[in-house]
From TrEMBL:
Residue spans crossing the bilayer: 23-41
Keywords from the UniProt entry: Membrane, Transmembrane, Transmembrane helix, Ubiquinone
Alphabetical list of InterPro entries matching this protein: Nuo9.5
Protein name as annotated: Putative NADH-ubiquinone oxidoreductase 9.5 kDa subunit
Lineage: Eukaryota, Fungi, Dikarya, Ascomycota, Pezizomycotina
Keyword Transmembrane: yes
Native species: Byssochlamys spectabilis (Paecilomyces variotii)
Length: 88
């Protein structure tokens, strides 16, 4: 039994696949670039000075004694409901 054609001459097989089945060949090439980019792009971004943004807060900030936060823009008193916008 002979070895599969791909393992006996891989470069020749890749050349054949690029001509005969280009959609499959190039989709595999582009798809394999994802994991490579996952490993290589963060150091390149940091080298050029790009920093990750601060994470979006998931909770409302709680005032603590040792942390100075700006005043909260929450109005005091009952909520005034505008007239004329309700479904009737």
């Amino acid at each position: 039994m002979s070895a599969p054609h791909f393992w006996s001459t891989p470069l020749r097989y890749l050349r054949w696949a690029s001509y005969e089945k280009p959609a499959i060949f190039y989709s595999i090439i582009v798809g394999s670039m994802g994991p490579v980019a996952l490993v290589t792009l963060p150091p390149i971004r940091r080298f050029f000075g790009d920093v990750d943004p601060e994470p979006i807060p998931l909770t409302y900030p709680i005032r603590q004694a040792n942390v100075r936060l700006p005043p909260t823009p929450v109005p005091k008193g009952p909520r005034v409901i505008p007239q004329g916008f309700d479904d009737e």
